[in-house]
Specification:
Blueprint (H helix, E strand, L loop, with lengths): L14 H35 L5 H32 L3 H16 L1 H12 L5
Helix pairs in contact: 1-2, 1-3, 2-3
């Protein structure tokens, strides 16, 4: 009786294509979170103008801000891995430019996330 060969990861028929799709999918997910946060910020501002306190909007904004930061870190990791395997392709350069712009525009969101994480998160 022979021992079966253990295969840890199935081999992709088109590794570069799959990597590109993974990178672009993560970018798309980050963009969705960014839009959700922008919508919640607008809703929160509208509530302040109308002198309305809506705890759900506040909690959702807090949650989606954290999810956005986590997705940004995920994209950063995927960019690093993609560059290691495939170099600086067109997809990489475009996604890296998107990520760099995100970091500039969302510096406050990322700073708040890191402060929250360093303090031990939600208690």
């Amino acid at each position: 009786m022979t021992k079966p060969t253990i295969e840890l990861v199935s081999k992709s028929k088109d590794f570069k294509r799959d990597s590109s799709l993974g990178l672009l999918t993560t970018q798309k997910e980050l963009l969705k979170f960014m839009i959700k946060v922008a919508d919640l910020i607008a809703k929160e501002a509208e509530n302040k103008v109308n002198q309305v306190k809506n705890l759900k909007v506040y909690k959702d904004l807090d949650r989606y801000s954290k999810l956005t930061a986590l997705k940004a870190l995920d994209l950063s990791d995927k960019l690093e891995i993609y560059e290691y395997h495939h170099g600086k392709t067109k997809e990489f350069i475009e996604t890296q430019a998107f990520y760099d712009q995100f970091l500039i525009e969302q510096e406050d969101l990322m700073t708040q996330f890191f402060l929250w994480a360093e303090e031990g998160g939600d208690k």
